Amino acid sequence: MKDKIPCGAASSERGPMLYFPCLCFILLSVLWFGKAEAQTDSNSSTDTGPTRNVTIADAVAMALTNNLDILISQYNPVIDQFSLNGLYSAYDPALSLSASRSDNTSPAFFDSQFGFTVPSVDTVTRNYDPGIAGMLPLGTTYNLTAPLANQTTYPASYGSTPAGITLTQPVLKNFLIDSSRYQIQLSKQTLRADQLALRLQIMTVVNSIKAAYYNLVYARENVGVERAAVTLAQQLVDENTKKVQLGALAPLDQRQAESQEASAEADLLAARLVQANAENTFKSFLSLRLSDWSGVTPVPTEELLALPEDPDLSESLHQAITLRPDLLQAKITVEKQHLTIKYTHNQLYPEVDLTGSYGRNVYSSTFGNYLDGLRQGDFPSYSYGIVITFPLENTAARNNYHSAKASLEQQLLQVKKIETTIVLAVDSDIKTIRSDYLRVNATRKAREYADDALRAGQARLAAGSTTSFEVLQLQNNLTTARSAEIRALADYNIATEQLAFDEGLTLTRNHLELKTP
Predict the structure, then answer these.
(1) In Å, how far from its chain's centre is CA 273?
(2) What's the rounded Cα separation, in Å, for the pair 467 and 312?
């Protein structure tokens, strides 16, 4: 079955938060990955402390759940989703409420025309102005208002300027795309790019941990090869010592055997250092739980095998061009630049906005009659028109547009460069796989021949028909052949994993699936 690795977040506000408590962009099925158990490896005398047997599936599982690079990268899609959700606030309606009161007292005065005194008047006016304004996804702006004025002079009255709706629709600049729509589409592409970046990070870690695993297998087996070389050298020293004591061998042959033993011990020390470095490289992919591995020696349980593979170059190239996350990221960058060109080109147009409004005038002595008049709409008010704003220079918009086009040409070249790199890498991987497979067969035969030659040389030495110097050379040849064989096996397995990485098939090869809700 395929193990699913969730990344990203749901589009709702709550969705991304579900991923935080568990830090579980990486969920691996227990049906595929077994749990590594700590135990002592009786087959390796070089392990002085506690050991832990690790299969290659265990290694991948532990790296995916404990590697800090992945754990850091997994937050980028979550952050992108929050940012994208926030950009949709451009379409959130805004409710406005205002209320005011004004008091106006006019003095009494004598009206000479009519011959009577007008008394002073105290007028209290209360204004209420609720409204809802916002923008629609097509760029249409709206404003709903329902103003109300209450005046307390005799007779008291309720009235309003037209209560209704006002609409404005761009038809040139900001029609097909505006700043809000541009930023939202860019944010969506950024989210896709960061999901691909997470995929690439996971692929990189899986490829690297498997290479580290194979190198660790080689290092441990090479220690065994060098230890066997020391044993052979010690046996020859012991045999030569007896012969020298019996006078059947010259002391010079004894010195040569002792020199071989010392050289073998030095090679063993160097091999153990390589093993220690390989163990640290392996542990470096388990950053989050590195303390659990302090003083613990990882013991690979897999054998180095050379399963024959014959990849087809054209098929591999097709898969790489289709699946490689870094190439897909580069193509997303080009898509984002096309959006930028579309937006900057739109900003070259003059602003031509269609406007329209509809409302109802009401004036009444009571609030109830005011509501009835507002509902009946006997006194409508409407308007329509066009507003044109034409920039005389528009220097910034023109230069932004030309800059965006130049950037697109640069990014297209970058995509071409990545494609070229992929083609060469895949071609090189396939040649390496074929060469390493032949090298595995050749080194295996060389090791078998060297083993037969050493046994024959030891038999001749026992019969006295050859010298210990020849046996020393045969021992060296066998050690070299054994080391070359396991190195070839490790290189072959690393090369097959590298081809899967360059094809973009690392997750598929390891039965992993990246989920992006």
Answers:
(1) 35
(2) 52
Cβ neighbours for 495, distance < 8 A, ≥ 6 positions apart: 429, 432, 433, 436
- Which residues, at least 6 apart from 220, have a Cβ–Cβ distance to it below 8 Å? 44, 46, 275, 278, 299, 300
Q: Confirm if 361 and 379 have CB atoms less than 8 A apart.
A: yes
pLDDT tens profile 104-143: 777 777 777 777 776 767 777 788 888 899 999 999 999 9
Residue 350 main-chain phi, psi, to 5 deg: -70, 160
Q: Which alpha helices (H) appear in 325-394, and where do they start and end?
A: 325-346, 367-376
Q: What are phi and psi of 324, to 5 degrees?
A: -60, 120
Residue type, 26: I
pLDDT of residue 125: 79
| 277 φ/ψ angles, rounded to the nearest 5 degrees | -65, -40
What percent of the chain is modeled with pLDDT above 70? 86
Q: Is 348 helix (H, G, I), strand (E, B) or coil?
A: coil
Among 158-162, 347-351, 512-516, which stretch is predicted with the lowest mean pLDDT?
A: 158-162
CA-CA distance, 379 to 272, in Å (whole number)?
97
Per-residue tokens: 91: 């379409």
**Residues 257, 468: contact at Cβ < 8 Å?**
yes
Which residues lie closer than 8 Å to 508 by C-beta, 6 or more apart?
500
Supply the DSSP symbol for 170: E
Inter-helix orientation angle 325-346/395-463, to 10°: 170
* DSSP label of 72: H
Tell me the DSSP string of 290-322. GGGGTTPEEEE------------HHHHHHHHHH
43-101 residue pLDDT tens: 444 566 799 999 999 999 999 998 888 989 999 999 999 999 999 999 999 999 888 88
What is the pLDDT confidence band of residue 21, given thresholds at 50, 70 and 90?
A: very low
Q: In terms of pLDDT, which residue wins out, 370 or 135?
A: 135
| Cα–Cα distances in angstroms (integers) from residue 73 to residues 56, 64, 200, 235, 513, in the given order | 23, 12, 10, 55, 17
User: Nearest Cα to 508, choosing from 68, 207, 188?
Assistant: 207
Other Cβ atoms within 10 Å of 137 Cβ, number: 12
Tokens representing 232 are 């052979």
Helices (H) and strands (E) in the chain, counts: 11, 15
146 pLDDT band (50/70/90 cuts)? confident
Q: How confident is the model at residue 368 (pLDDT cuts 50, 70, 90)?
A: confident
- The beta-strand segments (E) located in 395-494 are none
User: SS3 for 471-489, per residue?
Assistant: HHHHHHHHHHHHHHHHHHH
Look at residues 58, 40, 57 and name the one whose alpha carbon lies nearest to residue 49.
40
